[in-house]
Amino acid sequence: MAKILELSEQLANQIAAGEVVERPASVVKELVENAIDAKSTQIDIYLEEAGLKKIQIVDNGEGIAAEDVSQAFKRHATSKIYNQADLFRIRTLGFRGEALPSIASVSKVTVETSSEGEVSGTRLVLVGGKMERHEKAALRRGTKITVEQLFFNTPARLKYVKTIQTELANIGDIVNRLALSHPSIAFRLFHEGNQMLRTSGNGELRQTIAGVYGVQTTKKMRSIEAKDLDFTIRGYVSLPEVTRASRNYISTIINGRYIKNFVLNKAITQAYGSKLMVGRFPIAIIEIEMDPLLVDVNVHPTKQEVRLSKEAELVTLLKQSISEALREENLIPNAYENK
Ligand code: ADP
Ligand code: MG
């Protein structure tokens, strides 16, 4: 008898979920990224028990057409890339077609969605990746996706999950970064009915920062701007007197994607030189636009690590723009920025 057998789809999805769905915050990240990719202008996130009981994301984006809904839960099924050329020019946050099948394989998922020009929407219920219901439903345009009983069938993962406070802090952190990366989208985050975050969505990065870190902190930030042939940098950095004890308040965003890059984060801190005390770090939100051909986002399933061509050039430009903004004469309170 043959010993080598192909894994069932359900098992393959659960294995992928091991990488993509580490904790409630990963579910929130993947679902919000889908809402962003669907061109939503309003995204609301509702949590119960830090997402362990319930995560619900409501968006006003393009929705999913009835004929596509079940396809969205198949492994490697995506509407975002179709060929190899697309893979090298990724503009969307998703492209691997892994999130929905992975999440569905370890929870109970209800999707309610309706796309432009459809008479009625669709409601789909999956439990542990198995389709339980697929029906028509009267809905407004957009997508509402509800994830319950997370990790009900993967006890080891459930054990790994930490306290409500820790998981909630992780979700808050990821939603902050997603909001900072998308000033044109109005975000709201609720836990047990209490609002934890609200951003205006009016396209002003400064106002989004105020929504996330507060108006007082934002007043102590200076704008940076730089451009060369390959990169456009925009953003805000805190004055040297406004620091934090961790690097967690540095957000580097490349083409709308929040990324983790040690070299860039180090460059940001180094630009402060001796202005920072040891063990203190600035608050910084840095948006970098570059040709997608220069960024390889296909490095890790969560896509937070990327490989950059011309990294050294970017580091130089970034450091210059920050030291410029922090030059003594620029540190004098600026009437416009303090408004
Ligand atoms: P990926 O984002 O990599 O394409 P996903 O598994 O996250 O893979 O989603 C599969 C597909 O489902 C997406 O390509 C998209 O077409 C559709 N989809 C998922 N979420 C939404 C949403 N909130 N609004 C519209 N379409 C969505
Ligand atoms: Mg996705």
UniProtKB/TrEMBL annotation:
GO biological process: mismatch repair
Keyword annotations from UniProtKB, A to Z: DNA damage, DNA repair
UniProt signal peptide: none
Key word Disulfide bond present: no
Domain DNA mismatch repair protein S5 as annotated: residue spans: 209-327
Molecular-function annotations in GO: ATP binding; ATP hydrolysis activity; ATP-dependent DNA damage sensor activity; mismatched DNA binding
GO cellular component, one term: mismatch repair complex
Keyword check for Lipid biosynthesis: no
Function: This protein is involved in the repair of mismatches in DNA. It is required for dam-dependent methyl-directed DNA mismatch repair. May act as a 'molecular matchmaker', a protein that promotes the formation of a stable complex between two or more DNA-binding proteins in an ATP-dependent manner without itself being part of a final effector complex.
Family to which this protein belongs: Belongs to the DNA mismatch repair MutL/HexB family.
Protein name in the entry: DNA mismatch repair protein MutL
Species assigned in the record: Enterococcus sulfureus ATCC 49903
